[in-house]
């Protein structure tokens, strides 16, 4: 899959640009603060309709304007035009000028794998961050997953509201709660199965990828879930056992909304024992596993974005990482150190794009 052209209107520090890309490597270089990350962020927004940064959509709109448009031509089997339009009131997504009303119908179409220095939080931060990464990865593979996730979150909200009501006035019906619980379990099981399968796929690739980058260590992920190895009946009993606790907290204490992923290196928890370098390599290995999974399961080669990788890792690791990129993967690399990148690309077809204060120069 390739992005052939990108048009931006009032996106971050860009006013109006129109640029075409190479099918293999595209190197975006320039000083810090010039707009390199913003450019790859635009490609990400085109694919997933929102940023990889934890920001409000509105921050994507150039200061002083009230609308931003990101438009791109994507070549997969066919060539299609995708568009994301964001205003302070909300956003619209379009494919070939047809409005797509459900975002969940849009975001599995353009497949993208991005590494940014920020992604270290995948190891370091709370379980909710890891679930977010997992959800984005699975949503790109499986359209129904995101729908189920939305459904689950709605049911969870309704159940929690009802728990509070039951706590406050005794005349609420426990049988209604049972109905909500059973629905929650059904959708929860389906999400659990998808996550379990995905993490099994990750483990098929992760270890070898990590080894080829670092030449050492066994990296693994483990899925941690309340739903693990439980039948529907067992889960029902578990919810029942938690009822008085759930009622007094006014929230559901059991479910896939507490799931977590554990990374371990040679059986040690990476979060607690791993060095910063090991954690970065683990995240990169996860990202390259995502690529392999998309190739295997969806027969699609995603677009790869490596934001600031060169300031994050030493050259030896980067050389090993470049060996993992096959020639059919469209790759975007941002860097302040163009010479380092070029030394790795001597035989490849690539395009250089110089960024300065929100303007692009194709070199
Ligand atoms: N909504 C916005 N409107 C205008 N400028 C913005 C907006 N959001 C970010 N910027 C500017 O973009 C620049 C950062 O660009 P970025 O792509 O992160 O730089 P880098 O080249 O270091 O990756 C900063 O100067 C910042 O002020
Ligand atoms: Mg940057």
Short structural summary:
With 363 residues, this protein is α/β, with parallel strands linked by helices.
Please mark out the parts with pLDDT under 50 across 5 or more consecutive residues, or reply none: none
| Count of alpha and pi helical runs | 12
How far is it from the N-terminal to the C-terminal residue, by CA?
A: 24 Å
Q: What bound compounds does this protein have?
A: adenosine-5'-diphosphate, magnesium ion
Please tell me how large the radius of gyration is.
22 Å
Largest sheet: 6 strands, antiparallel
| Order of adjacent strands in the largest pleated sheet | 2-1-4-5-6-7
Q: Regarding quaternary structure, how should these chains be classified?
A: single chain
CATH topology of the largest domain: Glutathione S-transferase Yfyf (Class Pi), Chain A, domain 2
Please trace the helix and strand order, writing H or E for each element.
EEEHEEEEEHHHHEHHEEHHEHHEHEE
| Percentage of residues in helical conformation | 40-55%
Q: Could you tell me the number of beta strands?
A: 15
Question: Mind telling me which CATH architecture of the largest domain this is?
Answer: Up-down Bundle
Count of separate structural domains: 2
Q: Which descriptor suits the 3D outline?
A: globular
Percent strand: 15-25%
Can you give the mean pLDDT? 96
The CATH superfamily name of the largest domain is RecF/RecN/SMC, N-terminal domain
Helix-strand makeup class: alpha/beta
Please write the CATH class name of the largest domain.
Mainly Alpha
């Amino acid at each position: 899959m390739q992005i052939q052209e990108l048009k931006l209107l009032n996106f971050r520090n860009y006013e109006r640009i129109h640029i075409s890309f190479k099918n293999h490597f595209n190197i975006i270089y320039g000083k810090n603060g010039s707009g390199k990350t913003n450019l790859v962020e635009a490609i990400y927004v085109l694919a997933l309709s929102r940023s990889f940064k934890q920001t409000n959509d509105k921050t994507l709109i150039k200061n002083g304007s009230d609308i931003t448009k990101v438009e791109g031509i994507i070549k997969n089997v066919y060539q299609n035009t995708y568009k994301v339009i964001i205003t302070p009131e909300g956003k619209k997504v379009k494919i070939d000028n047809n409005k797509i009303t459900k975002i969940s119908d849009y975001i599995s179409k353009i497949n993208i794998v991005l590494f940014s220095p920020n992604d270290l939080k995948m190891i370091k931060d709370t379980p909710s961050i890891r679930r977010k990464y997992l959800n984005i990865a699975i949503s790109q593979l499986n359209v129904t997953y995101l729908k189920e996730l939305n459904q689950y979150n709605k049911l969870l909200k309704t159940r929690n509201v009802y728990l509070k009501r039951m706590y406050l006035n005794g005349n609420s019906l426990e049988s209604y709660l049972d109905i909500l619980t059973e629905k929650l379990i059904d959708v929860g099981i389906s999400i659990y199965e998808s996550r379990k399968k995905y993490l099994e796929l990750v483990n098929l690739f992760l270890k070898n990828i990590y080894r080829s980058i670092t030449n050492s260590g066994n990296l693994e992920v483990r899925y941690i879930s309340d739903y693990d190895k439980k039948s529907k009946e067992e889960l029902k009993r578990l919810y029942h056992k938690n009822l008085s606790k759930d009622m007094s907290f006014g929230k559901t204490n059991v479910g896939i909304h507490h799931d977590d992923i554990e990374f371990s290196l040679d059986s040690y928890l990476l979060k607690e024992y791993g060095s910063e370098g090991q954690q970065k390599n683990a995240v990169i290995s996860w990202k390259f596993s995502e690529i392999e999974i998309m190739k295997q399961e969806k027969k699609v080669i995603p677009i790869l974005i490596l934001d600031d990788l060169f300031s994050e890792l030493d050259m030896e690791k980067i050389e090993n990482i470049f060996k993992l990129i096959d020639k059919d993967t469209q790759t975007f690399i941002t860097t302040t150190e163009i010479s380092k990148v070029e030394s790795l690309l001597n035989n490849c077809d690539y395009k250089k794009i110089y960024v300065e204060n929100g303007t692009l120069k194709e070199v």
